[in-house]
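Our consortium's second objective concerns turning raw sequence data into structural hypotheses that experimental partners can test. To show how far this objective has progressed, the report includes one record in full. It was chosen at random from the queue rather than selected for favorable results. The single chain below, 244 residues long, was entered without modification.
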Amino acid sequence: MHKLAVLLLLCFPLFASADCTDDIQHWAKTLRPDLQLDAEHAVCKINPGDTSQILAALPFAENVAQDGQGDYGLGVVVASATTGKIIARHYQAGAISSDAIYFYGLELDTARYQLSPKLRAFGVRVNYGGSSRPNPFESKVLNLYAALQGDQLRPLMSGLEVSRSTGEWDTRCAGEFTDTQRTISISDQSNKGLAALRVEQTVIDTQNRPKGQECERIAAKPVVTGFTLEYDGNQYPVPKEADR
């Protein structure tokens, strides 16, 4: 089984190439000339699986208030690193909802998602945060894409929550927190031509409590479980308890 360090490796929210930023506005106008690009949160980078390509993820304000709350569409692009011309694309309306749990960024995940000898996928992570200090919240949600044919990218997996941190505390010390992390491995098993994805989940509960002048942090033993996602001929369905 080939391990992917999907939580730590090759997931940089910053632009990997200064040149690719010059094409972002052009790609946005090609994808959705009728919508306003949220340029602050748009990302692009060279594809390490094929350095002749640039990958980009572009959020578009579809119904967004001045405070940033509302619905965003998500455009995903594969473009030529030489010419900037779009090779493949996908657009999903209403892909991102920002409210009390607010959208604050995108990351391109280029870990080695080799689903078949000839097909390598890449990921887009959508980052969310909570606005309550007594009840902190942070979440990262992964979507996987691949160009199966023509100029259309296909979302092979949508909405897998790969990271979640929650808690409730008195804003000074005392409180309880839960951290959930999920990592993905490419399984040796396959279904309908594409490898299965093995997801390992690690949950750590932590308590903070005052101890004299200090704040003591006590972490419980990690609870490790797992599940497998199989390709059904169209996508990798994500179980309800693992999506957002």
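The partners drew two points from this record. The first strand starts at residue 2 and ends at 3. The two ends are 27 Å apart (CA to CA). Both points have been shared with the crystallography group to help prioritize constructs.
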